[in-house]
Amino acid sequence: MEVVRRQYAAFAARDWAALADLWHPNVEYETLKTAPGVSGCYHGVQEITDFFDSWSGLYAEFRVEATEIVDAGDQVVVVEQHSARGLKGSEAKAWVRDSFACLISFRDGKIWRTEEFPTLEQALEATDTPSRAHPR
What we know:
Layout: H1 2-13, H2 16-22, E1 23-30, E2 41-43, H3 44-56, E3 59-72, E4 75-87, E5 96-107, E6 110-117, H4 120-125
Parallel strand pairs: 1-6
Antiparallel strand pairs: 1-2, 3-4, 4-5, 5-6
Helix pairs in contact: 1-2
């Protein structure tokens, strides 16, 4: 759980070096299958951070935060919220928000794989222990 909290602090600071320390050398990031134009699986620190930069770089301000973190045994499920404003440098004041869940798996004490799901329930169902009930 602590590694995941540190990952989101690094995301917030855009500290790619800190992320590289938290991620396994063979890290994978699989986006929502419905993500227009960007769906797929990204491999390695450089490819993943380039993907994040290309997405967040479209906005004057872009934030990623974990709104809920669930211990799922050997995995962690996170509800992630993206907030952005100022598309392509516009002066727009309104924030655009999107939320989805990430299933995070570990290898050698580091984040090895992240897979995005539309909902928390779907991410929990995909864990190694699918019968696990969501703690509320």
